[in-house]
Specification:
The protein is α+β, with helices and mostly antiparallel strands. Helix content is 31%, strand content 37%. Helix 2 packs antiparallel against helix 4.
Length: 147
C-alpha cells in the first residue's frame, strides 16, 4: 500500500463512465417498458449497485485505501440501443477517488447486464473510462491527463 500519511487532506472528485450496447430485442423491451425488466428498473437498481460498490472498493481492489466517501452519484441513461452510466464520487481525503468511481461505473454496468441477460446475452459492455479527476497532484479532464 502506498503511504498517504504526509499528503494533505483535500476534496477529491472523480467521474467514470461505462457504456453498454444492446441488441434489438433488449432495446425493444426497455423502450416499451420504461427501462424495466422482470427484475425491476435498470436505472434504479444499477444506481444502487454502483453506489454500494463504490463504498466497498477497498474490499474489492487489493492495496486500495479505504475511503470515506462524502458523495456518490450514479446515473443510468438509456438512449436507443445504448446505455450510458456515469459515476461521480467525492471525498475529503489524502488520496484520489478514481478507483471508487471506476468500480461504481463497472458494477452498475454489470448490474444492467444481469438484469437483461434473460432476454439476450448479446449485450456488450463497452468502454469503462475515467473522465475526470481533481483535487490531487494529477488532474484529468475529458478523459485526458491535464497535469
Amino acid at each position: 500500500m502506498v503511504s498517504t500519511t504526509l499528503k494533505p487532506l483535500t476534496t477529491r472528485t472523480a467521474v467514470a463512465t461505462a457504456t453498454l450496447h444492446f441488441p434489438p430485442s433488449i432495446t425493444s423491451l426497455l423502450s416499451s417498458n420504461s427501462n424495466r425488466t422482470s427484475k425491476g428498473s435498470i436505472t434504479d437498481i444499477s444506481r444502487y449497485a454502483g453506489i454500494s460498490a463504490s463504498k466497498k472498493t477497498s474490499s474489492l481492489i487489493p492495496l486500495c485505501h479505504q475511503i470515506n466517501l462524502t458523495d456518490c452519484n450514479v446515473t443510468c441513461d438509456v438512449i436507443g440501443s445504448t446505455c450510458h452510466i456515469k459515476c461521480t464520487v467525492t471525498a475529503f481525503e489524502r488520496t484520489g477517488v478514481e478507483m471508487e468511481a471506476m468500480v461504481g461505473a463497472s458494477v452498475a454496468a454489470l448490474t444492467v447486464y444481469d438484469m437483461v441477460k434473460g432476454v439476450s446475452h448479446e449485450v456488450v459492455i463497452g468502454e469503462v473510462k475515467l473522465m475526470e479527476k481533481k483535487g490531487g497532484k494529477r488532474v484529468v479532464e475529458d478523459g485526458k491527463n491535464v497535469t
